[in-house]
Every structure is written in C-alpha cells, then in structure tokens.
Amino acid sequence: MTNGSSKVGMIGLGIAIVSIVMSGVALAMLAGAARGGSTQQKAMEVGAPGNDVNEFYIFTQELNADEEKLGVPVAVYTLTEITVHKGDNVTIHFYNTAEAAEDRHTFTMQAPYNMSYDLAGGEDKTFSFTADTVGRFTYYCTYDLPSMIGQLEVLP
Ligand SMILES: [Cu+2]
Fold this sequence. Notes:
By secondary structure, the protein is an alpha+beta fold. The chain is built from 2 helices and 9 strands. It folds into 2 domains: 40 residues; 101 residues, Sandwich (Immunoglobulin-like).
C-alpha cells in the first residue's frame, strides 16, 4: 500500500516538474516575441544638410555618344531612382541643362500621378506632389523614350 501511494506521488511530482518546465518555455517564447516586436523599428532616413529627405534635384544630361549610330536617344536623367513613403510630400527640382532652347525634355508620369512638365533648354521647374499611391512608377521624357526614364518607388 505504502509502495503504491509513493508511486502515485512520484508521478504527481513528475507532472508538476514537466508543467513548470513547459510554462518556463512558454514564458521564454512570449518574451522572445515581445523582444522581436520592439526591435521592429522604422528604417533610418537621414537627409543631406539643409535638404528634406523628400526633396530631389534632377538634371538632364546629354551623353557623349552618337545617337544616330546607336539608334536610341542618349539623353538621361541624372537621378533615376526616387524612393519615398506613402503620404510624403515630394518636391522635385527639374533642370533642363541643354544649351539650345529647342532641346526640350519633359518629366512625365502616367496615372495615378499623372503629370508632365515640358521644359525648353535652359529652363527649370520646381513642383510638388503627395505620394498617395504605393507602388513603382516610371517617369520619362516624352521626347526620348525608351531610354530617358527613371523610377519613383512609393513604399507603404
Ligand atoms: Cu528628353
């Protein structure tokens, strides 16, 4: 009889130890999840002195290459990647650096951003818009497709 009850006691002790270990594991997992949550911070974004992170300068540039021979326009934008976040107010300073007024270039985007600034050589234009749609959008010069393009990326 005494032998039997001590066996039951041992089993009870065993169950108690297992449940203590299990709750310890559960606590450790919870703590880990909490730690994981707090380290999910926003990526750092640092502008240049005096510049907003959402302010960009884009110049046109004529490459020193034979357009006729290559069969493709050799004008480019100096900035071909713009990354912002949804809701940002984006400012672009666009410069047509061509010397001859007839060398026109545009900064154009289709819907949803839907804009087109057409500048003569020597002109510049500053414009702003709100990045309200997430995604990747090509900006381009209507005179120099398919090569004079860049990408606006709007992150969530
Ligand atoms: Cu162009």
